[in-house]
Amino acid sequence: MRDVIARALIWVLSVLVPHRPGRHSAEFLAAQTPEPEPAPVSPWSRPWTGPSSREVRAIFKDERTRELPALQRERLWAAEFAALGVDYDYPTMPLGSLVTRERVAA
Q1: Rounded CA separation 48/87 (Å)
Q2: Which of 26, 39, 46, 55 has its CA 20 to 30 A from that of 13?
Q3: What is the chain written as a DSSP string?
Q4: What are the CA-CA distances from residue 55 to residues 50, 76, 83, 94 (Å)?
Q5: Residues 64, 77: contact at Cβ < 8 Å?
Q6: What is the predicted pLDDT for the residue at 104?
Q7: What is the pLDDT of residues 36-46, one digit of tens each?
Q8: Residue 58: per-residue pLDDT
Q9: Which pLDDT band, with edges at 50, 70 and 90, does 93 fall under?
Q10: Are 84 and 51 in contact (CB under 8 A)?
Q11: What are the φ/ψ torsions at residue 69 (nearest 5 degrees)?
Q12: Taking residues 76-86, what's their average pLDDT?
């Protein structure tokens, strides 16, 4: 008898309470609209913002920098790149010549 009463009560509540489809039902999945994938952005769609190869070659092949010591040459290159608006952080300078290592007594 309890089973019949429980089923009747569940049926009455399901009629009175609005029903939402479950997450895995066909109704729910049909109601979902897939989001459109964003169009891929090509890196070539915007103009080149860095210095041209002609400008870079002119900096590295400058005659007045050939007789300078390596550290001064790197600093001059960094200054010329800074004038062009490019960050140049001494990529060709070997760190072994700048860093001195000392033995630490344990």
Answers
A1: 16
A2: 26
A3: -HHHHHHHHHHHHHHHSPP---TTSHHHHHH--PPPPPPPPPGGGS---S--HHHHHHHHT-GGGTTS-HHHHHHHHHHHHHHHT-----TTS-GGGT--------
A4: 10, 14, 11, 24
A5: no
A6: 54
A7: 888 888 878 88
A8: 92
A9: low
A10: yes
A11: -65, 160
A12: 87
User: φ and ψ at 25, to 5 degrees?
Assistant: -85, 160
Q: How many angstroms from the chain centroid is the CA of residue 55?
A: 28
91: which 2 tokens?
């990529």
Residue type, 75: R
Tell me, rounded to whole angstroms, the distance of Cα 69 from its chain centroid: 38
